[in-house]
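for the writeup, i need someone to sanity check this before i put it in the appendix. the sequnce is what the collaborator sent (i think, or maybe the updated version? ugh). structure was predicted straight from it, no edits. if anything looks off just tell me and ill rerun, i have time this weekend
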Amino acid sequence: MNLLIKIIVTAALVLLISNFMPGVHVAGFSTALIVAIVLGLLNIFIKPILVLFTLPVTILTLGLFLLIINALIIILCTNIVGGFKVDTFFTALLFSIVLSVLQSVMNGILGEGK
C-alpha cells in the first residue's frame, strides 16, 4: 500500500510542478502516473549503474555530480514516456531538484520517513 501511495503522490507532484515550471509538459494525470512509475523503475535499475560508472567524478565533486545523473534520468524518462516533455537539460536539472525536495516534504508529512 505504501508503494501505491508513493506513486500517486509522485504523480501529483509531477503534475503540480508541470503547471508551475515552464519547460515541463505533462499531458494529464494518467501520463503523470506513468512518469512516476518509469522514474521509479529508472531509479531502481539504471541510476545505480550510472552512479557506479561515475563514482570517481562523484567523489571529486563531493556528490554534486549526482544532480547531473538525476537530470539525465529525467531526460531518459522524457524519451520513454509519450506526453511528458522537458525542454532543456537545465529544466530537467531544476525539475529533479524540485521533485526531490517536494517528495521529501510529502514523505515527512505522510509519516513515511520513519
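The chain is about 75% helix and 5% strand. The first helix runs from residue 2 to 20.
thx in advance!!
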